[in-house]
Amino acid sequence: MIRAARAEDLDPVVDVFLACWTTSYAAFDPPAMDRDRATALWRAALAGSAAFVADDGAVVGVARCSVADARVESLYVHPRAQGGGLGARLLEACLGHLREAGAGTAALWVFAPNAPARAFYERQGWRPTGRERVEAEYGVPEIELERALA
């Protein structure tokens, strides 16, 4: 079930995030992420944006979006729950929220070396904008993708 995230989801959301950080990002070696840092990041993220979780009796995925700039900020599905469509459903929850807020397009950043995530987004209709960045905090190149919401 996809539902709006609640304050009590913080710990399981951090669990999902850390599982993804250590497995999905291992191939391109981003900076280390510990539980305290992840908890601080997600406490702020959940308070400052619309967020949704995939809950199958336990939280196994999370996505969040910002209406202010029509951007999907995060999408993580626990490695043991990947491949069953939860990522697409979480993404659609964010896109539906952005549509309801009046957005005509949405954008997101994805780590450039994360080929599985890039392929996932391309299957969902996302295309590169040509913009790239490297945030000092992570030191990993990112590319911007966008998708029409109509």
Automatic annotation (TrEMBL):
<keyword id="KW-0012">Acyltransferase</keyword>
<keyword id="KW-0808">Transferase</keyword>
<dbReference type="Pfam" id="PF00583">
    <property type="entry name" value="Acetyltransf_1"/>
</dbReference>
<dbReference type="InterPro" id="IPR016181">
    <property type="entry name" value="Acyl_CoA_acyltransferase"/>
</dbReference>
<dbReference type="GO" id="GO:0016747">
    <property type="term" value="F:acyltransferase activity, transferring groups other than amino-acyl groups"/>
</dbReference>
<dbReference type="InterPro" id="IPR050832">
    <property type="entry name" value="Bact_Acetyltransf"/>
</dbReference>
<dbReference type="InterPro" id="IPR000182">
    <property type="entry name" value="GNAT_dom"/>
</dbReference>
<protein>
    <submittedName>
        <fullName>L-amino acid N-acyltransferase YncA</fullName>
    </submittedName>
</protein>
<feature type="domain" description="N-acetyltransferase">
    <location>
        <begin position="1"/>
        <end position="150"/>
    </location>
</feature>
